């Protein structure tokens, strides 16, 4: 079975959502993920939520290219999170066929964060979507254990865990941590490579996450073990923003990223499934 691949929006963050869909098609990706809204204009190329014309054009472009929308981002649950304002983004994602809304937890108040996450799951369920909670090395929910604790506390049926291999590595996690997670909670993952010794400061870690990742096989992460923790039908969202590709046409960037990802995945030894393995 060919591994389903998604082009993560951060891989080419300057691309307009329509350009991202076209780039995903050019790179041979099955899916892509887009931002429907963001906290600041500097982080958003186009506001999808509430733009009927753009939503219709995105739907047409997805249909024409055959690319499907895997997820929409980013629902940052900050202390004063406006859940009502996030509804339009969720509705836009649902109309475009997205399965997941990606949430993260910067809020250090776990009780408030849990309440906000539970409400987000409730709103998403009304649109037929799941919420994928991503732990982030710069946020309060920064490790796989803290994310799992929060997921268990909320207890929503449509809440899953989203693992970004960079943040897993930067918080001391590994393949053994993935192996102990209920496979139901790991419907897809964000993948990249990186140098072994990551930056120390929060500012530098944010820069690495947004601009200084590596294509698969060009870094030093134990990708064979990490990727082997996921079953062959689990989609991989390729999140590899790297400065060396910036400036190239988006379609060319996507072809480079897609081709290098498939070559690396094809080079991995075939693992024989064991009873009870995902």
Q: How many angstroms does the end-to-end distance come to?
A: 15 Å
Q: How would you spell out the order of helices and strands?
A: EHEHEHEHEHEHHEHHEH
Structural class: alpha/beta
Strand content: 5-15%
**How many runs of DSSP E, i.e. beta strands?**
8
**Structural Rg:** 18 Å
User: How would you sum up the major sheet?
Assistant: 8 strands, parallel, barrel
Annotated CATH architecture: Alpha-Beta Barrel
CATH topology: TIM Barrel
Provide a count of the helices.
10
Low-confidence spans? none
Shape: globular
CATH homologous superfamily label: Divalent-metal-dependent TIM barrel enzymes
Strand order of the largest sheet: 1-2-3-4-5-6-7-8
How many separate domains make up the residues?
A: 1
Protein name: TIM barrel protein
InterPro entries: IolE/XylAMocC-like (IPR050312), Xyl_isomerase-like_sf (IPR036237), Xyl_isomerase-like_TIM-brl (IPR013022)
Pfam family, one: AP_endonuc_2
């Amino acid at each position: 079975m060919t591994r389903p691949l998604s082009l993560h929006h951060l891989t080419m963050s300057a691309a307009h959502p329509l350009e991202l869909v076209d780039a995903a098609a050019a790179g041979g990706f099955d899916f892509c993920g887009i931002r429907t809204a963001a906290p600041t204009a500097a982080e958003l190329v186009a506001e999808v939520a509430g733009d009927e014309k753009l939503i219709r054009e995105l739907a047409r472009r997805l249909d024409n290219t055959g690319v499907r929308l895997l997820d929409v981002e980013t629902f940052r649950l900050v202390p004063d999170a406006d859940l009502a304002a996030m509804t339009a983004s969720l509705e836009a994602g649902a109309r475009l066929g997205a399965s997941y809304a990606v949430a993260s937890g910067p809020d250090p108040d776990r009780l408030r964060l849990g309440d906000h996450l539970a409400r987000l799951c409730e709103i998403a369920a009304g649109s037929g979507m799941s919420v994928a909670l991503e732990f982030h090395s710069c946020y309060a929910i920064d490790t796989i254990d803290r994310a799992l604790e929060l997921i268990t506390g909320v207890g929503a049926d449509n809440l899953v865990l989203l693992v970004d291999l960079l943040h897993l590595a930067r918080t001391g996690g590994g393949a053994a941590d993935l192996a102990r997670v209920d496979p139901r909670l790991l419907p897809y993952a964000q993948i990249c490579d990186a140098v072994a010794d990551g930056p120390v400061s929060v500012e530098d870690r944010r820069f690495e996450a947004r601009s200084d990742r590596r294509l698969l096989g060009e870094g030093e992460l134990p990708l064979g073990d990490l990727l082997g923790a996921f079953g062959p039908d689990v989609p991989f969202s390729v999140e590899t923003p790297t400065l060396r590709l910036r400036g190239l046409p988006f379609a060319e960037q996507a072809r480079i990223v897609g081709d290098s990802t498939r070559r690396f995945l094809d080079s991995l030894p075939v693992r024989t499934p064991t009873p009870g393995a995902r």
